[in-house]
Amino acid sequence: MSNRISILWNDSQSVSGEITLTNAGVCKLRSGGDNGLTEGNAFRLDANKRLELEIDDSMTDIGPFPTVVNVRTKINPFSFFLRDVRMTNPIFIEQYGVVVTEAHDGRSYGQIVSSVFKQGNLSKLQLIESQPEESFDNAAKQTHDLKCLTWLGLSRDIRNFEINLFDMKDHTDICDSVQPKYHGVTVLIPELGDNPLLYNYTCGRGYSCVLERKRWLEKDVLPILNVCLDDEEIQYHYKIFVTLEKSPLAVENVKGTHFLVANKYSLTSMFTDEQKKRIEALHDDEIYRDEETVCYIRVQAVNTGKTPKYSFVRLPQPRFFGSFDRFGDPMHLPQKGRDALRYDAVNGMGGFGDDRVFLIATVNGKPVPDIEMSVLLAPGEKAEYIYKIPHTPVSALRAKELAAVSFDEKLHECVRYWEKKLSRMAPVKLPEKRIDNMMKAGFLHCDIVAYGNEPDGAIAPTVGVYSPIGSESAPIIQYMDSMGYHDFARRAIMYFIEKQHDDGFMQNYGGYMLETGCVLWTIGEHWRYTRDAGWISSIRENIVKAAEYITAWRNRNKREELRGRGYGMIEGKVADVEDNCHFFMLNSTAYVGMKRAGELLAVIGDGRAQSIIDETRSYLADIMESLNMAYAEAPAIPLGNGAWCPSMPVWTENPGSLCLHTTGGNWSLGGTTVGRDSLVSTQYLLLDEIIEPDHHYADFILNCMADTFMRNNTAFAQPYYSVHPYANLRRGEVKAFLKEFYNNASSLGDRETYTFWEGYNYCSPHKTHEEGWFLMRCRWMLYLEADEDLTILPGVPRKWLANGNEIEINEAASYFGHVGFNVVSRVSERKITVYVKLKPIHRLPERLIVRIPHPDGIKAGSVSAGVYDAGNETVIIDGFKGEIGFTVYF
Q1: Residue 596: which of 689, 468, 513 has the closest Cα?
Q2: Residues in Cβ contact with 669 at an 8 Å cutoff, skipping those fewer than 6 apart
Q3: Is residue 254 part of a domain?
Q4: Which of 36, 37, 529, 848 is the most exposed place for a label (fewest CB within 10 A)?
Q5: What is the DSSP letter of 290?
Q6: Residue 82 half-sphere exposure toward CB, CA atoms < 13 A
């Protein structure tokens, strides 16, 4: 059976090209008028832009390997599935001015387009634009409410504690628990047969049909956990933090853990033979110390009723009825652990024997007399339990010394310690308290799991339970850098420099191949924030080696059979699956890294800069050659407004989106059938300075993702791998940006403690990669550089400028220097005041752009300085001198 279709163009110029088929037999061409010519599979159309095709031996049933029609025109080539051609829903690619319909459809191009738009349907991005701006509360009504485990510890030190409550979704226990860990790896002790150490404890009567419990951080942002459990009349208030066993908790008293030893305790770490030898030499001195970290827990049981009521607690005890190894597999514990267990009621100490103490416990200042306690409390009466749990058991002598330490004194030290840490962050004041808190808490969450020797050694910016990854650590480092914590950023980058292979390659995690380019990019961002030429000079050879490694890698792929299919592009693995292909994501990150390398070497006068710059230009041309071919062959997919766009390619080896099964295969990833297409795809070209936000490829990518690969403009499974909101913001699509911002944050971040999971499957708690990208979104919405412009408030919600609200940031790092601004809304007086100050470290922006969205959408009547752009609701200041104050009048 033959399939007959027509292709119509709306263009004043001639159209020429050829038709090729995939998974089909013969194609016959005929022009739809007198001013056309066809010969074999080639065609040229002049006045009448209608081409008719008759295709035999085609695959148009559902299933893999469908017939694809490739329309290979010189300009705007495109492809489509033959089975998708329908007169009722014609394929219409607006950017290309082309329509594909059934041959018997006699309508003109204009008539078909008119009928499409007459229906009034909207694409997902258009629908978002038609709706009110998204908010956290609105998003939270429909998104997951994932509760995350809490990690407590000290910055730089891997001896942390995982705090778990029995209602956490990934928890199989029936009690609350405290688990000492070396970063993401459980502590193993001989008394438990070298099985994991975990302590269970309970407060209240236990499971019931009602659970009333809330959690919050100290002062809303500090990593000190507060919990309130409401067990009817008795309320249990927990306060949990980590401190040092002996020394006062202060920055100067925290020694930290060498970054290589810390790296050993991260999952899927990779080391060279030389690094393994160094770890072995360092290990024992770094891990086995004469001062432990200690988890302090205070439980206050209070009778809020009108009659006496019993309170119930069970002290923290090792879990003996089953435990978990570092990968989560259940196992049974040996009897010898039970036999060694002791509880000394006289001193309130639990231990494995008399000289291996794991718990010091008091109630109302005296030793707790038994492991389980029922205490009658009069109305308003309180029982106060204090538990001190060393990271590993300590001697009886050290336990007695620890017993004498004041809880309140240690709490006060801990608050001061974290407040001093937070003082390193650029001061931020936002009208939405939750986002304000998340920015500050996130700063500390990233700091707490960055390990290294103090005060100035390299530090490992870990990502959840995993080792640092050049790609996943990038947003963490760049956020901390942008918030003025330049010392952190430099030391975190040095982790990758210290571990760089002799040939220039950087690889630290699970066989991933994209770290080298990502690290060069992050080094470049640090340079732009600090202009620290001395440091760049000190690592110039590392930069050159990395660039040369990428260049050699490219050269291995400069084979003629790869022309348009990955010529000059590097191949390799970018995610957990073994796809060693020419990913656009992989090459995007390598390209921007090379671009930064050339820039860095040029500014320090290194003579090798020009060859890298030239190589980078050639690299861009190679990427674009394969990208153009990929988009020419990517089958078009429908959008919600009736238009179509080419599907989004992932790598050069497959035409278009993998989940369309053009070449068959099983492409699910991370719990989603569209994982590869939405998470490790072409969208990175938008972030990495390859595709400009106004290019039609950007239209295709953002529309394809929003309509097919996302819900609420938010990716599936592991959504912070998607960087498309950056492009939304650059394009002025603020509503689309905010839709993703709030839906993502409300679903993947813990709404009480602000820590993030890796994905919706409860994989990897305290995942700072995800939190890092959330934090970078906060940075982008507050200020953003583009070319020679600096834009203030490009993505903030309108409600942030409600009457009386204030937005302020000081000493934040930008490409131009440290920037501060204050915006105060007085819309009740029909005005908003703005003050911006920039301390330049290199140059001033050519334009300062300040976006001022009125909470009710009202356009400004006048401004006291600059030019007001009503369409974008911005005030444009040309010739910005570094400091300006002005008023916007409504």
Answers
A1: 689
A2: 575, 576, 577, 675, 676, 679, 680, 717
A3: no
A4: 37
A5: S
A6: 30
Q: Which residues contact 432 (CB under 8 A, 6 or more apart)?
A: 136, 797, 799, 800
Can you state the angle between helices 407-422 and 433-448, rounded to 10 degrees? 100
- Is 879 a domain residue? yes
Q: What is d(CA 456, CA 613) in angstroms, rounded to the nearest whole number?
A: 33
By DSSP bridging, strand 789-792 and strand 847-851 are: parallel
359 Cβ neighbours under 8 A, 6+ residues apart? 199, 315, 316, 317, 349, 350, 351, 387, 388, 389
**Distance (Å, whole) CA 412 – CA 392:** 24
Alpha-carbon span 277 to 273, nearest angstrom: 6
- In this prediction, residue 578 carries a pLDDT of 86
Can you tell me the distance from the alpha carbon of 182 to that of 160, in angstroms, rounded to the nearest whole number? 6
CB atoms within 10 A of CB 376: 11
Cα dihedral 477, 478, 484, 489 sign: positive
Residue 386 sits in the same domain as residue 461: no
Give the distance from CA 179 to its chain's centroid.
26
Diameter over CA atoms, the chain: 105
Task: State both tokens at 457.
Answer: 């050694």
d(CA 731, CA 794): 10
* Number of C-beta neighbours around residue 867 at 10 A: 10
Q: Are residues 769 and 809 in the same domain?
A: no
- Among 633, 657, 673, the domain-final residue is 633
DSSP helix/strand/coil, 743 = helix
Structure confidence by residue, pLDDT tens digits, 519-561: 999 999 999 999 999 999 999 999 999 999 999 999 999 999 9
* β-bridge pairing 68-73 and 78-81: antiparallel
- The residues with which 429 forms a beta bridge, in sequence order, are 808
Same domain, 163 and 207: yes
* Residue stretches of the chain with pLDDT short of 50: 321-331
Distance CA 443, CA 640 (A): 39
Tokens standing for residue 217: 């951080």
Tokens 């860095």 correspond to 600
The domain total for the chain is: 6
pLDDT at 326: 40
- What is the rounded distance in angstroms from the CA atom of residue 168 to the CA atom of residue 165? 6
Q: Looking at the structure, do residues 578 and 660 belong to the same domain, yes or no?
A: no
Inter-residue contact 81 to 663 (CB < 8 Å): no
Residue 509 gets which letter from DSSP? B
Number of Cβ within 10 Å of residue 82's Cβ equals 23
List Cβ neighbours of 339 (8 Å cut-off, separation of 6 or more). none
- Which string of DSSP letters, residue by residue, matches 7-73? EEE--SS-EEEEEEEES---EEEEESSSSEEEETTEEEESS--EEEEEE-S---SSSSS--EEEEEE
Chain-centroid distance, C-alpha 177: 28
CA 654 from chain centre, in angstroms, equals: 27
d(CA 487, CA 120): 54
User: In 3-state terms, what secondary structure has residue 301?
Assistant: strand
| Omega before residue 77 within 30° of 0, cis | no
Determine phi and psi for 553, rounding to 5 degrees.
-60, -45
- Distance, CA of 100 to CA of 73 (rounded, Å): 14
The parent domain of residue 554 ranges over 510-633
Distance of CA 381 to the CA centre of its chain: 46
Q: What is the pLDDT of residue 194?
A: 81
> How far is Cα 684 from Cα 651, in angstroms, rounded to an integer?
12
Rounded Cα distance between 701 and 649, Å, is 9
What amino acid is encoded at 884 in this protein? I
DSSP 8-state class, residue 753: T
Kindly state whether residues 162 and 239 are assigned to the same domain.
yes
